[in-house]
Design a protein that fits this description.
The protein is an alpha+beta fold and 192 residues long. The protein has 5 helices and 8 strands; from the N terminus they run αββββαβαβαββα. It is elongated. The mean pLDDT is 90.
């Protein structure tokens, strides 16, 4: 009688052991095919990485400028009219404030405004957003390289220290979430 129960208990133990080994694999397949996808940790939208062409541009003061001059820095980039209405001013303000929120890392970030028309920004804007690089980009092929859902005027873009356009922030931006994204990028980045 003892001999008959021993093989059954061994068989049960073996089946239990097999079930424990297979369970995590089966569970992972179930989650992969039927589970809800995990939400992203970043606020900004990662876009297809694209190296920006190193074209010659002119600052609003007439000095020639190439994007490659900023290699080694993270770039917050905005595209808008030189008229700079309220939404433009908000973006410039948010770029300035988010950069300042990075405290000891501010020197790793540059702010660039690509002006896509022939309007000249007023002097008050230049004073308010001192440190921003104002660039005349009207009819420049660089503008064609910057993707938008509806309009380039809707976003603040992020360019990595190697010159790759890699992220854009939504139209109605939450600057605190944007600051967290940038802080995370600066922390994990080994470049710039």
């Amino acid at each position: 009688m003892l001999k008959e129960t021993a093989p059954k208990t061994h068989k049960r133990k073996l089946l239990l052991l097999l079930a424990l080994m297979i369970a995590p694999i089966a569970f992972s397949y179930i989650l992969f095919y039927w589970g809800t996808p995990p939400s992203s940790v970043n606020y900004g939208e990662l876009i297809k990485v694209k190296v920006l062409p190193d074209v010659t541009l002119r600052k609003t003061n007439g000095v020639t400028f190439n994007i490659s001059q900023l290699r080694g820095k993270w770039i917050l980039l905005v595209v808008d009219s030189g008229e700079c209405r309220e939404s433009c001013r908000k973006k410039l303000y948010y770029m300035r404030q988010v950069r300042l929120m990075q405290k000891n890392e501010t020197d790793r970030i540059e702010r660039v405004w690509l002006i896509d028309d022939d309007k000249i920004p007023e002097d008050g804007i230049k004073k308010d957003f001192k440190g921003t690089i104002f660039i005349n980009a009207r009819n420049n092929r660089l503008l064609k390289e910057i993707p938008a859902k509806i309009s380039r005027h809707d976003h603040i873009y992020m360019v990595d220290p190697l010159g790759n356009l890699m992220m854009r922030f939504p139209k109605d931006i939450d600057p605190s979430k944007m600051a967290k994204d940038i802080k995370r990028l600066l922390k994990v980045s080994q470049i710039g």
